[in-house]
Design brief:
This protein is an alpha+beta fold. The strands form two sheets. A four-stranded mixed beta sheet has the order 1-2-3-4, with helices on both faces. It has a three-stranded antiparallel beta sheet with strand order 5-7-6. The longest helix is centred in the middle third of the chain and has 15 residues. The chain starts with 7 loop residues before the first helix and ends in a 5-residue tail after the last strand. It comes from Thalassococcus profundi. This is TnsA endonuclease N-terminal domain-containing protein.
């Protein structure tokens, strides 16, 4: 999924949402028309659709832009209209404080894995097919013998959910991973 954003903070939030397993779609710069005669407009930085069908309309702003309180008050009005018009199930105002550095690091890895290497991915899948317990990504990469291609293939298995990483941990070569079925 390719994204275009106007600011670093928007790009971070877009990447974080785009790699979530429960998210099926992320739309950017979505226009919302509201008011008694549809005379007003607000552009949501992104609208996220979850697997269960819920839509979340998100506006992204740096915290410094919220200090006066005017924008927050504006968003209360917009949120009321979003509910009134059934545009989305909820509205979120996101800031840089909502960005988890570890999750962003891992999301950036997933974004970098757009290109496919079926041969390396098949070799990685075969290698981890009988994996017992936890093993470092580096050890698996060494066992694959494909160098960077093997490392990327293992990262791809992590992004597919075939290999599991401990929660809230940055993915690095020393990260211990386990096969999905072997975790209780």
């Amino acid at each position: 999924m390719r994204t275009v954003s106007e600011a670093w903070i928007e790009q971070c939030h877009l990447q974080l949402q785009s790699v979530r397993a429960d998210v099926v779609d992320v739309r950017e710069q979505v226009r919302f028309v509201y008011g008694r005669r549809d005379e007003l407009r607000h552009f949501f930085d992104m609208v996220v659709t979850k697997g269960d069908g819920r839509r979340i309309a998100c506006t992204i702003k740096p915290t410094i832009d919220l200090q006066s309180g005017r924008f927050v008050e504006h968003m209360r009005t917009v949120a009321w209209w979003v509910q009134e018009k059934k545009f989305a199930h909820s509205v979120r105002l996101l800031t840089e404080q909502d960005i988890d550095a570890k999750a962003l690091h891992n999301a950036n890895i997933n974004v970098a894995l757009r290109d496919r290497d079926p041969d390396a991915e098949d070799a990685a899948r075969a290698l981890v097919g009988n994996l017992q317990g936890r093993v470092s990504i580096k050890a698996l990469t060494d066992n694959l013998g494909l160098g960077a291609r093997g490392y990327r293939a293992l990262l791809k298995l992590i992004s597919f959910g075939d290999l599991l990483v401990p929660q809230n941990e940055r993915i690095t070569p020393v990260t211990l991973v386990s096969r999905k079925e072997s975790v209780s």
